[in-house]
Amino acid sequence: MKELKNLDSIYGGNTSITGSILTGLVNIIRLLKDAGYSLGSGIRRISEDNLCPLK
User: Fold this and answer.
1) Least crowded by CB within 10 Å, which of 8, 17, 21, 38?
2) Which residues of 35-48 are buried (b: 16+ CB within 10 A; e: fewer)?
3) Tens digit of pLDDT for each residue in 4-17?
């Protein structure tokens, strides 16, 4: 086994994903999904002429 003498030149990867990052990504995905549902529903209601009257 080799002995390590100079530990200053050893770099490790610090690519840990925290819970906060995952929660943020999930919230962004949910927001985009809900926006897509709303947009699709609006397009469908306009095409079927099923809008609420403004009077």
Assistant:
1) 8
2) eeeeeeeeeeeeee
3) 676 666 666 666 77
Residues sharing a CB contact under 8 Å with residue 10, sequence separation 6 or more, in sequence order: 4
- pLDDT by 10-residue block (mean), the chain, 55 residues: 67 73 94 96 90 77
> How much is the pTM?
0.59
CA-CA distances (angstroms) from residue 20 to 8, 17, 26, 31, 49? 31, 8, 10, 16, 43
Q: Per the structure block, which two tokens stand in for 3?
A: 């002995």
Q: 10 is written with which tokens?
A: 């050893």
